[in-house]
Amino acid sequence: MSIPQPAGAVQLARGICRALGQLGYAGLVEFPLASGRRADIMMLGRTGDFLIVEIKSSVADFRSDRKWTSYREFADRLYFAVPAAFPALLIPEECGLIVADSFGAAVLRHGALTPLAAARRRAMMLRFARAAATRLHRQLDPHAGWPDGV
To answer: Model-level pTM?
Structure first.
């Protein structure tokens, strides 16, 4: 089950996944967390590190959403991705900053490193793998009755 995103967020997600993919990350959009929330993009690096990218397509979107603080416990680094016209000074210093459009993105600042505990990393790895496999299988058989949440 996918939650619709605003058109601007979808465009930014494409550019972010493209750019971070070139840096060795694999990403899943609308990734379900164990807390019941959904990260806009969960990225898994070659070394097993996790990044969450929270997309903010406007200042109003940023100001109306404070759920992102709960994402820190599910990633080694937290980033905000914004369009070029977004005032970067609004983004908290401890968070990474990515400027993106539908064709690519640039990491302007890395988020503070807060390494996941080994048990959380293992749980996240399994959750990521199952979500990716389920999404791939849905492409092969969209009518199989797949469980929600992946």
So the answer is: 0.88
